[in-house]
Amino acid sequence: MYSRVSTTTCMIYYERTNMKAADAKALASVLRTTKGTILNVDTNDIGDEGFVALVNALSPTITCFYADSNRICDAGAVALADVLRTNTTLTDVNLWGNCIGDAGAFALADALHVNTTVHLNLARNNIFAAAKRALAVHGTRVKI
Hints:
The chain is built from five helices and six strands. It is of the alpha/beta class.
């Protein structure tokens, strides 16, 4: 299914497709060659395993990555933070409604000191006061 992703398409859209971690890994295997600018896997079930595979395979043309409601937790957020330290192409990442906790939030807050281009939506996660304060330092670039 994912081997047919166009290498010239503008938007890669797999919202509400019942995608699991294995499917996300299959998509990741072809993602590096795409020229798409938007990747949308909202409202699936990829978890940390699938999210980490996608994050590590992002092509340099992807500017927007939407992965709300996917059971992404701290391991996925930490992987994203690692990528954000060097990827300044991403400008918009939506992780609304996942299960990211303080450890993931602190990792992302730290990465945002290096990456000044990305905007994150982390609303409706499991982030508490201290981690919210660390993210709030970045102002309107972070929605919590």
